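Suppose a classmate hands you a notebook page containing two proteins, each written out with its sequence and a corresponding row of structure tokens. How would you begin to make sense of it? This section walks through that situation. The first entry is reproduced here exactly as it would appear on such a page.
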Amino acid sequence: MREKISLLLLVCLFSLSGRAGLPDSSLSPWHITVKDKNVYTGIALANGRIGIMPSSSLFSVESIILNNVYDKESAPGVSRLLKGINFGNLHMVVDGDTVREESVSGWQQVLDMKNACLVTSFRYKNKAEISYTIYALRGMPYCGMIDVSIRALAPVQVSVAGEIACPAEYKEPGPTFRTLKDNEIKMPLLQTVAKSPFEKHTLATTASFLFDDNSAELHHTLQSPYKHQLSFDRELPKNETFSFAWAGAVCTTQDFRDPQNESERMVIFMMRGNKKNVIDQHKKMWSDLWQGDIVVEGDLTAQRDIRMALYHLYAFSSANTGLSVAPMGLSSLNYNGHVFWDTELWMFPPLLVF
């Protein structure tokens, strides 16, 4: 359904969420961009089950928020949404130097609302052009992916580490690294299993690299029971473009009897040549969601603001789950993930219309 509607009527329906910096007026009505990190508010990538909160720091995700998974806020306190065990951070070294903010130029982040992804790009010295895209995969609602592309401007040696970080308040973290085999196919799995702060739930996160080939030799580094990494090295000749992805799944006993096994199965599915398929499915499902759109003619700022509001409603909700939407959705733990009257007053009406 596509409707032309005045901004005045829209304001009567719902309010807007925050944006990552100031929008670039030259971009399309589907994009929000930021080039200045000094005033930065991240915009969550979400699929109704998990919310991935990005950061202005390179290759960094602040947190993963789980929908409808609660434990106590404190011993005498109320229930509170749980953070997932975070699989969303990468570390990159080029020619022996860690890629840091002070060494890059042309940094920008672009939220693509149409495809529900966040694209970060920059140039590292005179050595490489790097971009990465974060997805909270719509068709695999417990999974996320960071899709990375490196274009060598000179011959370079690249080292990349993917990380799983368990929140400090979780109990009995168990980090492991295993390589499963199916005939000649190897399936390396980085994993952490832990108890929630008051042991109501068991959480399991599994992650691994997705390559076009399986030639990379992987190395496991255990930094502590709460943090460990999987890494590889690659030599790139000048003008070569190298792409890979880091994908993870976080499951809990709220939704699965065996969250450890389920998180493994999801990552193995993506490893078995399905990277393009799950990204295409994600984009198709968001295209279907955007059949419920509001089109504004002649006011680019209003158009982006309206789509930003719709983007958050679609990102934080999911059909056929019976789950409601908290005031902050899947972007933070404010309000503890509780549902109030404003859900019915501000969020349900536009969802019902579309």
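The notebook's second entry, a different protein, reads as follows.
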Amino acid sequence: MVIPLVNVLVLGGGGQIGRALADRKWPTGIVPIWAGRAQADLAEKGALFAFLERSAPDLIINCAAYTSVDRAEDDRQLAFTVNGEAPGWIAAYCRSAGIPLIHFSTDYVFDGTLDRAYREDDPVSPLGAYGASKAAGEAAIAAAAADCWILRTAWVFGPHGGNFVRTMLRAARSNAHLTVVDDQIGTPAPTPAIAAAVLKLVERWTVGQYAPFGTYHLAGDEPVTWFGLAEAVFDAARTTAPGWPQPDLVPITTDQWPTKARRPANSRLDGGKANAMLGLAPLAWRAALPGIVSDIIEDLRKSTP
């Protein structure tokens, strides 16, 4: 039986994963407390600590992050404060309060040079400021010695917020041809499946059946390139939203799409440890895609005449 009235503080409640958690029905007795930047600004240590103390949660889920990969190259100080230092502050609070933390990290902590999917114990070697800031956050949590599950994800997409799927669908309305990188590969993670995994972890913790604290990869069940993902997006749109524009997709190389920050060529994450130890199934991104595409198209139709 779930312990009654377990208060779970969700930091970053307005982001992709936070909103996916809000979309789900929470187990009986587990009460979410939602906090966006207005309530808990991760760039302000004193205000953050004060908010945590007022909230007095039994568990914290940190979905908040500085996520602009390219802007982080010029805005390193803020990126490292939010992604690197703040997780350590939160972990220090959790240690002092005797409560656990669930923290999200990223495939960008790796350089993408391996010829296989990355496992949790592979050494981190970020290519840019964003990845380095997230790696710093992982290190800060370890230094705080808090009870924590670090959940790394890659290529996150869902019905809310900015992501690759929304970008493709929106761009199709004004572009007959779309060029998409075809030499980067990853394991896409749909936010509804991420949220389901997190709630399962929380529920198991309430009854003492949780996996050991540590780092886990929440990975999509099938690797794909950005170009392949774009093809899947428009295949889904063809069936779920007939009449939505179907652009010609043109595969290109990373060199043909220069960006300020370097991206890992290989963002595949091995989810075997999480599947076994957290009792999860691989995140089935193709199965989740049609519903997400339908929701995004509905939103785009409402927001733009």
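A careful reader of the second entry would note: The mean pLDDT is 95.
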